[in-house]
Amino acid sequence: MADVGADLAVRPDSAPRILTVAPQSETTARGPVFGGWILSQLDHGAGLAGRKISGGDVVIAALKEVQFHAPLYGGEEFALHADLSRRGNSSFNLAISAWAEPDGACRRILSADVLLVAIDEAGKPRKLPV
C-alpha cells in the first residue's frame, strides 16, 4: 500500500549500498517492478553492509517493519541505503531504505528494519569486532 507521506521522506546522506537501474524484465503487467525483485535487492544490500560492519559472514535473522511506500518502475534509478541502527554482542539492526530517482526527483520505495547475526565458519553466532 502506498504511503501518502512517501514524498516527505528524506533520503539518507550515507552512500547507497546498491545503485542500479530497475530492470524492465522484472515488471508486472501493470508496470511496477515485482516486490520480490526489490526484496532481493534488500537481501543483497543488507548482506553487503552486514559484512562491512561485522568483518565477516552474516545471516538475516528477521525482516521487521517492511513497508512498501510507492511503486518502482522499470528503467528508474534504484538506490538502497543500509544504516546501522542497533549493535549488540553478535547481532545488529540495519535501517534499510530504498529510493527511486527518475529524472532527478526522489521517491521512497521501501523501508525496513533488518536484524542480522554475525556468524563464524561453522554458521554459529560470533561476537562483533569492537
Automatic annotation (TrEMBL):
Keywords: Hydrolase, Plasmid
GO cellular component: cytosol
Biological process (GO), any one: fatty acid catabolic process
PROSITE patterns xref list: HOTDOG_ACOT
GO molecular function, one term: long-chain fatty acyl-CoA hydrolase activity
Domain HotDog ACOT-type residue range list: 12-122
Similarity comment: family membership: Belongs to the acyl coenzyme A hydrolase family.
Protein name stated in the entry: HotDog ACOT-type domain-containing protein
Biological source species: Alloyangia pacifica
